[in-house]
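Example 9 (inverse folding). The structure is encoded as follows.
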């Protein structure tokens, strides 16, 4: 990653006034949370079932205990801290330049870093609801529960507010995302393989000046990028 490309990115940021960030699991790997598709990601580890099978609605309903074993072990990182990418994005929002973070992540690290307008396309681990009486439970309650977390009031099974495979995305989150992306003069795509749909399709609404892609592996949007940076996103943002 040479200085030239970082300079170009900096100058483009200076020029823009409506920046939107669109990210995925790669944004949090430098915080110690594995992604799905890197070589040390969850898809490379061996389980009885592939991860996308386990985190599906069918699996959750039919094998709730096994779902929670995987979910608690591999998808909950209550002690993870934001890295330089999360922090810089929060700073750009405070300066008024960045208008929204759109994330496929469920880890809540953007909010922990101080970002306010965070659109969680796939929900978040910090919100959990009883499927019977709809009582709310925080992440700590789920982490500390034995096996399948149950409601302390009615005994119902608690489900995390995350979008599992086969489940639909929240329509108000989608429409707010489209609105931000359509108004953006810069869209920064970072730390995502862009192969999970419909989330990845939302970037088609971008019609602004600079499309920036920051990712370690190639993505389907590299050819369209005005600024393409192959590198670690935390490192890139720490140099801005
Ligand atoms: P993915 O695993 O498919 O792709 C991650 C991409 O990020 C890869 O292309 C990889 O090369 C790149 N990457 C990894 N570390 C990076 C770094 N430090 N800097 C730059 N690039 C880096 O992830 P996805 O596209 O987000 O899709 C996976 C799905 O899994 C999402 O829907 C997401 O909800 C979920 N998921 C979320 C988390 C989380 O909340 N942190 C973790 C794992 C999976």
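The amino acid assigned to each position is listed next.
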């Amino acid at each position: 990653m040479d200085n030239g490309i970082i300079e170009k990115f900096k100058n483009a940021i200076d020029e823009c006034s409506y920046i939107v960030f669109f990210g995925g699991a790669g944004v949090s790997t430098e915080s110690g949370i594995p992604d799905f598709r890197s070589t040390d990601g969850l898809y490379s580890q061996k389980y009885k079932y592939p991860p996308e099978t386990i985190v599906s609605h069918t699996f959750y309903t039919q094998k709730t205990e096994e779902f929670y074993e995987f979910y608690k072990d591999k998808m909950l990182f209550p002690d993870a801290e934001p890295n330089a990418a999360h922090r810089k994005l929060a700073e750009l929002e405070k300066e008024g330049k960045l208008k929204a973070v759109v994330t496929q992540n469920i880890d809540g690290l953007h909010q922990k870093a101080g970002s306010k307008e965070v659109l969680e396309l796939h929900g978040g681990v910090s919100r959990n609801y009883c499927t019977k009486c709809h009582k709310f439970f925080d992440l700590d309650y789920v982490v500390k529960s034995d096996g399948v977390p149950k409601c302390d009031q009615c005994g119902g099974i608690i489900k995390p507010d995350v979008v599992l495979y086969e489940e639909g995305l929240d329509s108000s989150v989608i429409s707010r995302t489209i609105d931000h992306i359509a108004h953006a003069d810069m869209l920064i795509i970072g730390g995502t393989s862009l192969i999970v749909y419909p989330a990845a399709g939302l970037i088609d609404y971008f019609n602004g000046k600079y499309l920036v892609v920051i990712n370690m592996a190639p993505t389907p949007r590299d050819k369209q990028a005005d600024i393409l940076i192959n590198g670690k996103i935390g490192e890139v943002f720490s140099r801005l």
